[in-house]
Amino acid sequence: MLQMVITGLICGALLGFVMQRGRFCLTGGFRDMYLTKNNRMFYALLIAIAIQAVGIFALVEAGVITFSAGSFNWLAVIVGSYVFGIGIVLAGGCATGTWYRAGEGLIGSWIALAGYMTMAAIMKTGPLSGIQKSMTEVHTSTNSIPDTFGISAWYFVALLAVVTLFFAVRELLKPKAALPKLKQKRSGLAHLLFEKRWHPFFTAILVGLIAVLAWPLSEATGRKAGLGITTPSANLLQYLVNGDQSFLNWGVFLVLGILLGSFVAAKASREFKFRAPDARTSVTSFAGGIAMGFGASLAGGCSIGNGLVQTAMMTWQGWVALAVMILGTWTASYFVYVRPRSQKTKTAAAVKAAV
Amino acid sequence: MSQQKLSVIGQVCPFPLIEAKEAMNALNSGDELIIDFDCTQATESIPEWTAAEGHTVTNYEQIDDATWTITIRKK
């Protein structure tokens, strides 16, 4: 128990710290692929996936960890990931993003988190658990991409590494205008940790390493999985309302650690402040949280569980979920950012013409 | 040269940047826009956009806990 508390909190705190300092926001990344045609955050995600893939298949080979890919519940994964993608735009951050931004003092993220945890618990053990059960009956027998092709996972890991390296190097070689910097007020370690801008690729390398670390730490406590956010968030709520200790596992301490790590990072870098959204944003955030909880429970994972971990495990679930989740964020971005602005321009033009 | 002020305190990303883009559109070349914001992620997105567009940042600093100000001169 003590080991579970300590290693879970430490791993989560590292993740929360790194994500806060590195501004690691997948929602923003997926959204900007569409809004500003900027793929840098997506390449950063590929870096984190590739590093984790090398790490976990090496750990499996060394006999340190074991995992089973299970079956591919394609219907639930596709529907759930799409709803999840819409939800994270409304909530202003993915599941992990919501946890770490809550640690920065964003009340909007607290509201989204409340909707997310509640809906995840309703879906997992509550009245809506039937939807999930009936939809997951539609599945293929194998979820592992290497098993489908009958070849070693290392071929896919190598392919991913080469593709990632290609995009990362191409991105780094692009000519760039000098980026305006904040006035430096600190020096030494304090500057590096709490002030300096972190390159997204550097942050991604750290996220990938933490994702690898999560596997042995989690398995040592009997939980055979890597980073996970949705089930642990639901578990936390289930434990809080019924006191059943069987809901407490490594993942619960992981998500609490994210909050803690992000708070420490934000406080130390003078980026913690309570920020309250207006009524309209609060309602949108809550709706986003509900959609996130519904979607991630159905899909069996959020942008971390599916988008970072299942992808590294080379499963169909991970890669299909990632693609559909991105489509969901693009759909929501159109309705939230693109359409209202173009209508505003049209109205302005119409008013001008009338005058 | 004139200076305009835009406060997007309390707005979350990507709205600070969207508002900044609109405000810049209304300015003339050489005019400056002072943006006050408290969305952590805008500390990345606003400077990146400014650099990509070729505008000049004449002042950029943290003025309080989770509060920043940036002054952009339109090219």
Please characterize this protein's 3D structure.
The complex is a heterodimer of chains A (355) and B (75). Chain A is mainly alpha-helical and 355 residues long. Chain A has one domain. In chain A, 72% of the residues lie in helices and 0% in strands. Chain A contains 16 helices and no strands. Chain A has helices at 2-22, 26-35, 40-61, 74-91, 95-102, 107-124, 129-135, 145-149, 153-173, 188-194, 200-219, 230-242, 250-268, 279-299, 305-312, 316-354. In chain A, α6 (107-124) packs across α12 and α12 (230-242) crosses α13 (250-268). Chain A is globular and about 70 Å long. Chain B has a 4-stranded mixed sheet with strand order 1-2-4-3, covered by helices on one side. Chain B contains 2 helices and 4 strands. The mean pLDDT of chain B is 92. Chain B starts with a strand and ends with a strand. Chain B has 75 residues and is α+β, with helices and mostly antiparallel strands. The A-B interface holds A 20, 23, 25, 28, 31-32, 35, 92, 101, 104-106, 108, 176-183, 185, 197, 266, 270-273, 275-278, 281, 337, 341 and B 10, 12-14, 18, 38, 40-41, 43-45, 47-48, 50-52, 54, 57, 60-62, 64-68, 70. Chain A: Keywords: Cell inner membrane, Cell membrane, Membrane, Transmembrane, Transmembrane helix, Transport. Chain A: InterPro entries: Sulf_transp_TsuA/YedE. Chain A: This is UPF0394 inner membrane protein YeeE. Chain A: It is found in: Cell inner membrane. Chain A: The chain crosses the membrane at residues 41-60, 72-100, 153-173, 198-217, 247-266, 286-306, 318-337. Chain B: InterPro entries: TusA-like (IPR001455), TusA-like_sf (IPR036868).
Count of DSSP H/I helices of chain B: 2
Strand-pairing-aware structural class of chain B: alpha+beta
Query: CA-to-CA gap between the ends of chain A?
Result: 73 Å
Order of helices and strands of chain A: HHHHHHHHHHHHHHHH
Which stretches of chain B are poorly predicted, pLDDT < 50 over at least 5 residues? none
List low-confidence stretches of chain A.
Answer: none
Largest protein interface, residues of each chain: A-B, 35 and 27 residues
Family (chain A): Belongs to the TsuA/YedE (TC 9.B.102) family.
Protein name (chain A): UPF0394 inner membrane protein YeeE
Membrane topology (chain A): Multi-pass membrane protein
Subcellular location (chain A): Cell inner membrane
